[in-house]
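#structure-requests
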Amino acid sequence: MIRGFAELKEGGTTLVVPKQSAESMGPATEPAFFNPRGRTVRDLAVLAFSAYCDGKPPGRMLDPLAGVGSKALRALVEGKGVDEAWVNDLNPSSMKAAALAARTNGVSSMLRTSVMEAHSFLESAAKKGSRSDIIDIDPFGSPTGYVEPALRALKDGGLISVTATDTAPLNGLYRNVSFRKYFGFGLRTDYSREVGLRLLCGMVVRRAMSLDSVARPVFVHSDQHYMRAYLLFERSAGAANAAVAEFGYISHCFSCGHRESGGEPKPRCAGCGSRMHAAGPLWLGRVFESGLVKGMARHALTPWLARHGKLLALCASEKVHVPYYFRLPDIADGMGVPSGSPARVAESLRETGFSAEVCPLDPQGVRTDAGIVEVKRALGPA
């Protein structure tokens, strides 16, 4: 064993991680970075990569900010379809840990390591003929500076997964920072999680557009202090032009709770006439592709992956395509009534002619084309 490291079993894979992480399950930065609390990210990555590879020849995964290589190792050991992974980190100890874990799991021949600055690594991987099927971008903070180099190193038809941990600007704080990094303003609302994910997706789509290409979101999720998006990449200027129409704004009234979306921000609330506040421009199109998400559910065969089945079922069955939701506890608190079951409230809205369902991004949220007045009525009298 390498000094300062220990083995940690995660899912069906043995990882080599800093002792602090193995013994206390706390995040560590020395002698390498590893966060045990990111297990959900890694679980869902195994499923997403496997689903993407369904029906395709075995593919290559690239991770330019790999840490101890945990995501790539789990994809090789537990996933289906990834038969080669190139992992990179500027910390030599991280790559030693990744190589040792590969030997322990019997996948040494499938793992290639390097110690380079991430941008240089991506540049070296961007040559025609050596591009990869899957590229994962998971930095500390904002991923925006890595996305365009990653897209250049991605095959036409490839999958990019992107993580943002700078959730404060994405959630509506530091609006100027949000605009600088994600090309749009956030908004601090009860559905800030959705706004942030759509800003993240919009940033990746715009980076792709600059390359006469398009990146289409196929799966997103958020937990703790991260937001994560998976997008399919296509080299097509025509598709990039068409995707422009899927950008716009979410306008929100802080006086009555009314919200709506469209190509331009709304200056005044249609419900009470108050001034509206806007988030965007951001991605207004779909963020779940049912085929890929159903594929993820099919690959969730082990107990540690099957625990994500409920989330995947909600994502795969989503039919209401409005880019926001109503978080019931926040609305109920303002009314002075019990929050009620999201499933019951959604059913009540459907009975009155609206489309409504429990939101996959928030278990306490309802996604519906109804307005705030109808949602309050479904919650019950004040």
